[in-house]
Amino acid sequence: MGLVIGITGGIGSGKTTVANHFHDNYHIDIVDADLVAREVVEPGSDGLQAIITQFGGDIIHSDGTLNRVKLRELVFADPKNKAWIDQLLHPMIRQKMQQQIQQSTSPYCLLVIPLMAENNLQTMADQVLVVDVSPETQVQRTLARDGVSKEQVHAILKAQASREQRLAIADDIISNDGRSELLAEKIAQLHRKYLALCK
Ligand code: ADP
């Protein structure tokens, strides 16, 4: 198993943009925590079955997929529900991310974890890369991308780790307040650094 580079950043910071650049230009494998979090509750999964047993059959849609709106309501309604869900899914997500890391064939792999600082998941990575932007940029880009309200974006920012908390776990930082064309040179530098660390 090669080197694992964890990449994180707040909503709208540019994690996906940066990770895709590593993938498209250097063929680096990506393990995406958000995708894995969806896989562990796919129809037929142990995760979804446990959720149905706990909350009843109303928690799935008629097509057998998880009703995320309903689950979110339950989680907001009672912190015990959130604790239960986290205890069920977090180990499954970690295990599946480990499996995908082991299957990676690129010299190093990128582990994209939006809530890395919040959940102390920097322990899964050898090096942490933080994509950093100002809160103003985060709000502006998230509004443009997701078509949500300003209030919703502010609420999400408030629920996430602070800029300082994220920077505190960084080995390297990519500033992404400027044009995305400016990312290429910094990413090339980091790629060389990570290759050197693999040796
Ligand atoms: P994250 O994965 O951290 O939520 P994304 O990579 O999806 O962030 O970026 C958020 C939005 O901002 C996307 O629509 C993306 O295309 C755009 N974006 C990313 N970097 C830049 C940049 N430097 N300049 C302008 N837009 C950007």
Distance between the termini: 13 Å
The whole-number mean of residue pLDDT values reads 96
Write out the distinct hetero groups bound to the structure: adenosine-5'-diphosphate
Q: What can be said about the biggest beta sheet? A: 5 strands, parallel
Q: Which fold name fills CATH's third level, the topology of the largest domain?
A: Rossmann fold
Give the ordered list of helices and strands. EHEHHHHEEHHHEH
Category from helices, strands and their pairing: alpha/beta
The neighbouring-strand order within the major sheet is 2-3-1-4-5
CATH class of the largest domain: Alpha Beta
The domain tally reads 2
Range of strand content: 5-15%
So, CATH architecture of the largest domain?
3-Layer(aba) Sandwich
Q: How many beta strands in the DSSP annotation?
A: 5
Shape descriptor reads globular
What oligomeric arrangement do these chains adopt?
Answer: single chain
CATH H-level superfamily title of the largest domain = P-loop containing nucleotide triphosphate hydrolases
CA radius of gyration: 18 Å
How helical, in percent, are the residues?
40-55%
GO molecular function: ATP binding; dephospho-CoA kinase activity
GO biological process, one term: coenzyme A biosynthetic process
EC number: 2.7.1.24
Keywords: ATP-binding, Coenzyme A biosynthesis, Cytoplasm, Kinase, Nucleotide-binding, Transferase
